[in-house]
Amino acid sequence: MKLNMNLKKSIFSALALLTLSFSASAISMADAKSLLKKAEDSTSFYQTDFTASYEVVQEKPGEGRSVTNATIYRRDSVSKWTILITAPLKDKGKGYLQTDNSIWFYDPADKRFTFSSSKDKFQGTNANTSDFAPQKYSTDYSIENIEEVKLGKMDCVLFTLKAATKDVDYPQIKLWVTKDDGLTRKKEDYSLSGQKLRTTAIPSYQKVEEKGKSYQIPVNMVIQDNLKGKKINGKMNYEKTIISISNATLAKQDDAVYTKPYLELMSGK
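Below the sequence we write its predicted structure tokens.
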């Protein structure tokens, strides 16, 4: 599958963000907390529903590329979301549902729902199901360190965060947030021992507006698995998952979209 030129440019920019960072001066804790809350709010849609088409491209060095397409529905005000897989054909009709603080996976092959977790990988990629949901940096983590840095040409604040609850995917994370707009540009996930597990880059955002509401939504996200890879021609190449978001809308969806019967109904179409 050939990637279009715009996506290639986005991926190139994202890969640059995976590695570039230069230290500068300090920032006050009060301003840092305000910026972190702004970054958290930019991942959430508490005043509206959110619907978009997602293309998830999994790249495994030496093994090629696989593509999954899905439609994602979110109603963050009540912590509900639905993911309906639309391609490839072998996975069409599969889906995920979060409701009542539980995550379920539906497989139309056996018409069964099985319990899932926010830490589970999405369709065998390097993305977790939690990557498609709101992030709660200010409540789930405590700030261990802050500093002003350059990420490429962008002025950012680099947050080092430590888990304040057990209900998180990673006990430690580092977060690069642009100072001017409070958007997350890069995230590194760490184990309790300090081993780097994943790196996520978000090089660009798109503005979506509806009925006076305006949100900044990533155009592409590149997730690199720092534990899985292969040496090719003497160079280490890591597995990557490239998520592209399009057709985003803030229109309210029918309540039925966030239910098990909806996934069962849509799986047959």
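Residues 162 and 172 are 5 Å apart (CA to CA).
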